[in-house]
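Agenda item 2: magnesium ion complex prediction
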Amino acid sequence: MNGKTVMACIDAAYASLKEHTDEIALLDQQIGDGDHIFNLLRGMEALLAVRSDIEGAAFGPALEIAASKVLSTVGGSSGPLFYSLLSGMSKASERHAPDTAGFAHVFAAGVEAVGQRGKTGVGSKTMMDVLIPVAKRFDELAAQGATAEEVRDALPRVAEENMLATRDMLATKGRASFLGERSRGHIDPGARSSQIMIASVCARLALHNE
Ligand code: ADP
Ligand code: MG
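Presented output:
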């Protein structure tokens, strides 16, 4: 894992988000203000523009470069939240070995930082409904000594299941919470974008067996 791996994951996430632009735009039109995917794509495009800085850095610093770019370009509620994810992962990467168990801790630390920033856990119909179960499953798999391949196989399924479960939830955080009961029946856009990014990153890492 190094800056090149980080950039390869960004490329994969960007391609997949772009493919789902209309779908995610519609989700945020239904329970938000419609800008979520455009906020994210703007941030990802800013990351593509600093490719050589990210690719030339070590793993932790590459994540920190990405985090600060995301903070200054994404905006909305999700900008500071994705900043917290990447920056939390960057800080934790200094304390953990670059193996499956270490990476599980790094991801969990990033998710924890999102929780602190957004002051929410599971059940509020947000991206946390995907991020927390994925971090938890990752931690369990690592504790059982799972291989990287097993992890890359399992996490996209956990993400998808939990993304779909946001459909029936009542939103109690963010813009969607203003709709009250009318927020039910729609998948949360941040849960969907997070799930898409997790799936594409796992697929990309599997392709190169990283
Ligand atoms: P905004 O709602 O300000 O327009 P975005 O459209 O970029 O921001 O992002 C909306 C997404 O942010 C939601 O779908 C939800 O997943 C996520 N979100 C909103 N508030 C929180 C929060 N407090 N904690 C975690 N995620 C949140
Ligand atoms: Mg929005």
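Discussion summary: The chain has one domain: 3-208.
Owner for follow-up: CH.
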